[in-house]
Batch of 2 targets.
Target 1
Amino acid sequence: MSHQSRERRRAVGLALPLLLFIVVTFVAPLAAMLVRSIHDPAVVDALPETISALEGWDGQGLPPEEAFAAMARELVDARADRSLGKVASALNRVQGGLRSVVSRSARSLEGVSEGPWREAMAGVHEAWSDPTTWHAVLAAGQRFTLRHYLGALDMRRLPDGSLARQPEDRRIYLPLLWRTLAVSASIAVICLVLGYPLAHLIAISPPGRANLLLALVLVPFWTSLLVRTTAWIVLLQRQGVVNDLLAAIGLVGEDGRLALIYNMTGTVVAMTHVLLPFMVLPLYSVMHGIPPQYMRAASSLGARPAQAFARVYWPLTLPGVGAGTLLVFILAIGYYITPALVGGSSGQLISNMVAYHMQTSLNWGLAAALGGIMLAGVLALYVLYDRLVGVERLGLG
Amino acid sequence: MGPSAFARLLRPGQLGRAAYVAYCVAVLIFLFAPILVIVPLSFNAEPYFTFTEGMLRLDPEAYSLRWYREIVENEVWRRSLVNSLIIGVSATVLATALGTLAALGLASPAMPARRFVTGLLISPMITPVIISATGMFFFYSRIGLGQTYLGLILAHATLGIPFVVITVTAALAGYDRNLNRAAASLGASPFAVVRRVQLPLIAPGVISGALFAFATSFDEVVVVLFMAGVEQRTIPRQMWAGIREQISPAILAVATFLVVFAVLLLAVVAWLRKRGGG
């Protein structure tokens, strides 16, 4: 065996345990989420014969008698083994109102033992005489489906199969997605405006003072995110330190205290605080490497300070500006904890919607689809970051 | 202070420089404000989140250790500290061992697909935690790891791995590969080369990475929210509950502990860096 291939096997052998580990603990979970976003067996598992009867239906008028018979039988069965709630929720997500139709029908059909089922079900609830109900059942019964993605993009499928956007007042996710991007971009710009001069000051300070200033950036960076978020609640709430201070110096009256938290202001302030070190550190590391002679040379050649900055210093710091801005932007897009704790109802971002559907509405398919869309966006930015900066240079301080 | 482009950019002379420095000081105060406010308020004798008149007069009566007593005596907080330590230490050991080995492999010029592999290993750091937690919730509960310590340890190790890979890779960047050849020519086995030569030299980087991994686990709340049962509640999870339900100044006492912890970690990392790692 040549030296080269032995070295290669050694390198692969060292990296392999971690690769396998990451595949199991990280890649497989993400894959499971993506599968969940297109795979929804709840309805077809509970109503298999109904769905197979509906698949033979031409879609015109009402479905055949056998679909009614299967539906009646399977609803009663589902109620008996307590899986009806899950089916009812799944159907209700495709067409609002179906939850109560299904639960009422299952209860009433219990005593009915023979058909004709079409009439029996129509007697139980008039929704069963409406073809759109059956179209909804058939749609919800698809084992593999894109409807969670359609939902996440505020779109819906019309009865004739074409796609349409939700009416303006029912669009939730796209506006939230745009808001998340806009807020993240603003935070990245604010961090740049705050962080650039500070990084420069640290870079030109003598070593002793530079270390002290760096420590002032790094202590908050290392401090628990929850601690920092708690601190902002303490600082910004109505009876908090900032409002007390403003009231004490008479800038606001006792009844005019500012709403600085539990809204978008709270989200932006706290997130800027959390993300600022991610801007300062890469900027500092680039500025640290710029020899001071460059600026002296520029001014001795007659450049005014503004010119020297614009033509010499700023271009040299662009790699740091790009790295910091992109990193802050990427991290901001996925922020969950800070908006959840200090954002109130108006300061929520797209991550909070994922958490809402995971924990409260239990619409896991939709949560997974929203997660899939976010993942695609963040991965694209990550690849861009790798091209521009190199992932192994992610600044840690 | 050296010649400052910014100072002269604003206005020639001292005034511009003063404004520039004042701006930077304001940014530093913004960065440090949370710590400046949390630590003194945790000694508040009253159950308020703002400075009482007594505190401003520096009246000793206005300060007390009552919130510290409360958390030390509270079974729930003690339990969550134990959980945080169990999960954090186990996850750190896993992440450090696997991450260091992988970084050694990635540092070799013979490593195939290095860029892709590095990108993959670092991706848990950049992937929004809410997404990782969602996927882990689905996958770990399916394979029977939902609401278990093992599941949380694996999840936290995954989130800590990028830090280990990055710091060890950085430490290896300054490593002279001729040392490997020298050791091998003196009869050292490949294993002995790593253990006796390479590891001791990059130890500061490895320890920095381990501290980052531990800090990550010690502060992680989203995965815990999604995957932990009541039994596995950690400190951040307990703080989360405290903030959402009803903040008591006891939370500020916990927060002060965590600030002190952060300062200690940072000091160790800075000391290690001076010794040539990370």
Target 2
Amino acid sequence: MRNLSRRRLITTGLAATAGAGGLAAAAKLAKQYGLIPPDGGGVYGPGETLTYVAQRLLTRHSLAREFSRTQISKSPFANEVVPLGESFHRLQTGGFANWRLAVDGMVARPGSLLIDQIKSFPSRSQITLVACEEGWSYIAEWIGVPLAHILDVVGALPEARYVVYRSIQSDWWESIDMADALHPQTLVTYGMNGGDLPIPFGGPLRLRVPRQLGYKSVKYITSLTVTDSLKRFGKGLGSASPEGGYAWYAGI
Amino acid sequence: MADSLAVQISASAPTVDRIVRPRHGALVRVTHWITTLSFLALLLTGVEILMSHPRFYWGETGNINTAPLFQLPIPSSRDTVPTGYDYVLPDQNGWSRYLHFQSGWVLVWTGLVYVAFGFLSGHFRRSLFPARAELSPKAFSSAVARHLIFRRSREEEASSYNMLQRLTYLLVIFILFPVVVWTGLAMSPAIASAIPQAVTVLGGQQSARTIHFFVSVLLAIFLLVHIAMVCLAGFRKRVGAMITGGARD
């Protein structure tokens, strides 16, 4: 204690107060601008919020890297595919002609789209990297319709803040914010490497979010819900991932 | 109380500096232990994450259908990875990833405060940057030789760092930690979209992951050697000095 002069005590006190005040102000700002992720509570909340804020400041409009055709992986890895269930196989027998993507929530024209309707929209293709949180990766060409176009067709309301999307596998659902939902590279894909999207890779319909890790690119999607709050979905943590212990924001 | 202390200090004027100036300043001590905690958390969670895919590649891509650069001979927490073990470890990636990034933030902010302080206060100049004379081949080799035969530190080294310590700390602070943070960020698809050069100069996303692993191994080796040297120098005294400051001895 011999070093503890009054001056140092005051300086330290002021610095601590300024630090705490700064943190509180930062938290308030983050909340005001909708930069607290849905899983931003709990012990890992501060880290998740910092990551999400940093990414949104730095990457709101950035484009995922696109590769040349020669860089497409010759042996991509689809990961494990759990049994898809009876309703999937019934649709598969019909060549997925009756596969529907339902769109509801904060949209002017809710409804559902058949695969052929989706394929009639202007398509876009991109050669991007799929990186799994486990550490492996592959590059493939993805063909589909920008999610932004579908949101435009159904008339997403300006108050919309998130898009929730679900798989035919009932325990797999995710959500993204509008920065990713309206991003030009976020595609509802039905094709891969020049052909139909193979079932192990998510066919007939997979949402590709190339600026986030693979688990945000949900396979076999059947519905979209546009919303201004994620509180009412599942446990209110944003998606199935935080309910299983994984981060909602998967840009890193 | 304070008065009597002041009297004591002025009574032994030549040693004022020894008594008043601690071996380690408060900011160095605080940032040292915060860095220690966050580094241990990063190391533990890093190993957990690694176990979900203990294979390494070079370039942009790699997965179990492609040949690895090398594979660690450890079991995996995923049954899709061929490891040679007939069991699969429990998945720890969820909380490990949460804690890895939270600790990463703590490490980065603490490091920035420490480096800013180090330059502004003269801590780096005084304690870490080697004097030009020490870097001459002769002085360098004699320092290495003395280190190798475990000669006890010379008088002036008892209260400051020798040249090998200085170079090691500089390597850790200005090369290993920045590279491990950079290669960690280079694995992020979002960061790669904003700063693609951060990935391409490394040779690709999988190269970044492989470099991240090797630099982490170097940091772990530094930690072990650092603890060994602290033990040789006197564990209680040295660790005590990093906690309380400790008078210069």
